[in-house]
Amino acid sequence: MAAPIIRVGSTDKEVSKDLCQFVIDKATSSIKEKGIFTVGVSGGSLVKYLCNGLPSFTTDWTKWRIFFCDERHVSYDNSECTYSLYKTGLVDKVGMPPENIFPINPDLSVEDAAVDYEKKLRSVFPGTDIPRFDLLLLGMGPDGHTCSLFPGHQLLEEKTRIISPISDSPKPPPARVTMTYPIINNSSCAVFASCGEGKADIVQRVLEGNEDVLLPAARVRPTNGEVIWYLDKGAASKLKNI
Ligand SMILES: O=C1O[C@H](COP(=O)(O)O)[C@@H](O)[C@H](O)[C@H]1O
């Protein structure tokens, strides 16, 4: 398990540019190696970092398979729906085949939506017990949550399911579907993007504190892969060791 790699940009725009270049480089190498690029995306501020930058790159979008590290259990026309943000901000803009992005089905109960989503996910990784994503793109809230894994929540201890429903998310909306650590920590590469001084305290605690039991983002440590943090100056401002 390698130590996290930290990359600091001057502004959130620079972070977005560097992050998107990194994603494209990963896509290029995965497509060359295996003919496909499997990527998990998150909601929140990550949406704008990706949707502002990725559409201007050239890549074989037909080879991308996009899943959600977590998603809110809301209808597609709800402004909280992460899928719809990527559909209009990326998929439609670049002309990616719509079947290459895998939304959760909000018409099902949140429990059934999680089961249905796991089935869709497994269909892209045939013959594997725990799918191994080429890249997971993650955000972190000011409480240290990532995906829909919140401090103190029982889902932090999930060892069997790779996708889980959650009905009591402390951050609204309460019903969500999320990846869990067995699949997150089986990825080849997990990348966080955090910007702004409002994230400085939690970034310092996650990267330099000894709170990996408590803070969900600190538990993202792929067994056989790397973790990279893209930060702007504000988010990195309380780090002592860079
Ligand atoms: O609720 C969520 O929050 C996190 C962090 O969002 P951010 O806006 O603080 O970056 C996000 O990564 C996750 O996907 C989302 O559901």
Q: What is the residue-averaged pLDDT?
A: 97
Shape estimate: globular
Q: What structural class should be given to the helix and strand makeup?
A: alpha/beta
Q: What is the spatial order of strands in the main beta sheet?
A: 1-9-8-5-2-3
> Termini, distance in Å?
20 Å
Largest sheet: 6 strands, parallel
CATH class equals: Alpha Beta
CATH architecture: 3-Layer(aba) Sandwich
Q: Secondary-structure element sequence? A: EHEHEEHHEEEHEHEH
What is the CA-based Rg, rounded? 17 Å
The CATH topology turns out to be Rossmann fold
What is the percentage of strand-forming residues?
15-25%
Number of domains: 1
| Unreliably modeled segments | none
- Quaternary status of these chains? single chain
Helix content: 25-40%
The number of helices is 7
DSSP summary, beta strand count? 9
Query: Which molecules are bound besides the chains?
Result: the ligand O=C1O[C@H](COP(=O)(O)O)[C@@H](O)[C@H](O)[C@H]1O
Q: What does the model show?
A:
This protein is of the alpha/beta class and 242 residues long. It has one domain: Rossmann fold (3-Layer(aba) Sandwich), CATH 3.40.50.1360. The chain is 31% helix and 18% strand. The strands form two sheets. It has a six-stranded parallel beta sheet with strand order 1-9-8-5-2-3. A three-stranded antiparallel beta sheet has the order 4-7-6. Helix 6 links the parallel strand 8 and strand 9. The chain starts with a strand and ends in a 6-residue tail after the last helix. It binds the ligand O=C1O[C@H](COP(=O)(O)O)[C@@H](O)[C@H](O)[C@H]1O. The site of ligand LXAUTJHC has 13 residues, from loops.
